[in-house]
Amino acid sequence: MEKWTVRRQFPFKLALQILKIVFVTVQVSLTCFVCREMRITHVDFLGDTVTVMRHKFLKDWDDGRDTVVYPPDSGRYSVYKSADLIENFAFIVSSYYSIREESFASFSYDTTIHHSVTDENNPVIWNHDFDRIPPMKLCINRIASVVVRNSTYEFDISEVYECHSLNLTRVEVDNITSDPMALQDILAKRNVTFKHEDALIISKASILFNLRTIHFSPVSTDQTPECYRIEVKVVFDNSRHTGQVFIDLNAVISYEKLCNGRILKGGVVSAYTFLIGLLDMVVLLLCLASLILCCRALIKAHLLKIKTLDFFDRHLGLKLTLSDQLTFLNIWYVMIVVNDVLIVIGTVCKFTIEFKDFDNDLFTSTGILLGTGALLVYIGLLRYLRFFNQYNILILTIKKSLPNMLRFMVCAIVLYAGFLVAGWVIIGPYSIKFRTLAQSSEALFSLLNGDDMFATFYTINDSNTTIKIFGTIYIYVFVSLFIYVVLSLFIAIIMDAYEVVKDRYQQGLVAERSVLREFVNSLEVPSLNNPEAREQFAQQQLLRLGCSKAGIVCCAESTSVFTLTARICDPYDSQPLTQWNDSSNCQILGVHLPDFRAAWERLCTSILRRTESPFAYGSFTNNASNNIANSNHTFTTASGSGNERSDASAEPHVMPMSSV
User: Pick from 448, 565, 631, 656: most CB atoms within 10 A?
Assistant: First the structure.
């Protein structure tokens, strides 16, 4: 608000951010609520379709297997005899060729309609000929051969992958439906057998086929029918060669523009959809404007940093530390840029979904982009709470403790990785919780946050006593170390930072000391509610950041973190510090030039008092102090008049910088 106080300039950038927060909130509440409902129905449709496929094509599949529980109530779906394998295969074949007659759903085969019948009562009736039904495909993973000679097995373990197109006739399908074992002879005619002697040869057998279906969304704002392609794959897994053949069905469902040669058409665009689209356009424009302004502010801050580094190097003989240089980088602006980009991309993806030109992954991408963007927008609200000391404690505590937390996390992650690899390697073969590296990490992190330890103990197979004892000790040590030691130290680091921040508040919030902050704090903050301050800090008095050579006018209005009280000339490359005079084309950033000599002398005194090294003392005096002590020159004022002289006793005037 200092712009309005001093220059009567409306803070349009602040108003833009407030408008963006309001409209993004409305978008999340209305638009994304509808989008969320669409995603829920879409995900439910995918899950329900896979469930239907399992009930239709897996023999004796019951409802109990549809419920995901941990630990599972039953073992994996499997068969143990050659006859059972053939019967399950025959069940899949019979179900595939009768899918249209026996399903209370709009399933059809993945083919172009050649013969269709249309009437008023039933708009779409698929009347496929049997010969036009796409054949199923059988793919087998096996080794080359196994030969038995004199009770000796000779293996040729070269891997072979072969596929067969099962072009079955209507008579063969009828025979399979009436007698499942007839499939064995039908496959034998095609050089495919599943006998007991093939148990060591065949590793996996996969049955592949495609279907199509139509989906109507129950959401009132999305009644357009959608066509989907279902790629079904049934796998008979015999890779362990133990006599237990696991059977699993996977279905990949993808959106299709054409449904068996027909274009599906829905109703007209509703007024609600039009209003939602208009709201999305407003959010898109606000985010683009915010993105441009924040990028402009970041560029100006970078140019100001270059000017400041050059000034300190040429005339003070000092190098700014990395911490001082990062002061020019406004992390809040960086976060605003990121959330603007996320919301813009997410809104464009949402437009794409509205026009149905999408794939299944676009739903997920849109949700992640808009959700993350909204999260960052609300985190950005904390920026405005910084102006109130009572509400700023969270940000200051995180900022103070973050370096120590990161160092501590490096050590904790190394220790965690050691336990992770040890559990995966040693306990993995004996526990379903440690079967993979990802599952091991999930199990350990759950234990770290209070998961049921007894279940973890119980899942370790007790067939190996050594592993059982090791697993028990392993879990006890991990839980004791990380819960009672690591987490306690982590909390202690945060509490220590909180105490430091609280003490600073009680002492008037003493800022951290550095060369740049010493230079900034060497002048007092002037009163801004007077005509002189308004004239001194008018728009035309701001520092030009040397962009005129490129034909661009860049003014350094401010930095969002600190007040830079530095005398910077443009151009000053050919004029050393001792040659500044009335004819210098000097400009000002937040400092009244007659007060610069007094500020300079206070800075020299402050730095020299804190310098104990004689080398540092000599370096500073040679490069800076002697230039001031031996010079008698005239400073130009901010308004351009050269009649005022520098006076060490004059009261300093400096303007605190507002947010860009």
Answer: 565
Question: Alpha helix (H) ranges present in 226-359?
Answer: 271-311, 322-326, 331-354
Distance, in Å, from the CA atom of 52 to the CA atom of 305, rounded to the nearest integer, reads 63
User: What are the respective helix, strand and coil percentages of the chain, to the nearest 5?
Assistant: 55, 15, 30
pLDDT in tens, 377-418: 888 878 777 777 677 778 888 888 888 999 999 999 999 999
Q: 355-363 long-range contacts, Cβ below 8 Å, gap at least 24? A: 356/224, 356/226, 356/255, 356/257, 358/255, 359/254, 359/255, 360/42, 360/46, 360/253, 360/254, 360/255, 363/38, 363/39, 363/42, 363/43
- The tokens of 462 are what? 């007790």
CB 333 within 8 A of CB 299: no
Residues 472, 477, 482, CA angle at the centre, nearest 5°?
135
CB neighbours of residue 108 within 10 Å = 20
Distance CA 520, CA 370 (A): 40
Report CA-CA distances (Å) from 142 to 190, 238, 344.
Answer: 16, 10, 50
pLDDT digit string, tens, across residues 387-397: 776 777 788 88
Q: CA–CA separation, 304 vs 309, rounded Å?
A: 9
**Which residues have C-beta within 8 Å of that of residue 334, sequence separation ≥ 6?**
298
Question: 10 Å Cβ neighbour count for 452?
Answer: 10
> pLDDT band at 643, cuts 50/70/90?
very low
Buried b (16+ CB within 10 A) or exposed e, 365-401: bbbebbeebbebbeebeebeeeeeeeebeeebbeebb
Q: Find the largest Cα–Cα distance for the chain.
A: 117
CA distance 280 to 277: 5
d(CA 457, CA 341): 47
H or E segment to which residue 236 belongs: strand 226-237
Question: At 560, is the secondary structure helix, strand, or coil?
Answer: coil
- SS3 state of residue 159: strand
What per-residue string of b and e applies to 63-99 under the rule 16 or more CB within 10 Å gives b? eebeeeeeeeeeeebbbeebeebbbbbbbbbbbbbeb
CB atoms within 10 A of CB 17: 23
Query: In this structure, what is the dihedral angle of CA atoms 109, 112, 117, 122, given to the nearest 10 degrees?
Result: 60
State how far the Cα of 456 lies from the Cα of 433, in Å rounded to an integer: 7
Residue 3 and residue 12: Cα distance in Å, rounded? 10
What mean pLDDT is predicted for residues 199-216? Answer: 89
| Ramachandran category for residue 179: left, alpha or beta (phi over 0 → left; psi -120 to 50 → alpha) | beta
Q: Give the end-to-end CA distance of the chain in Å, rounded to a whole number.
A: 11
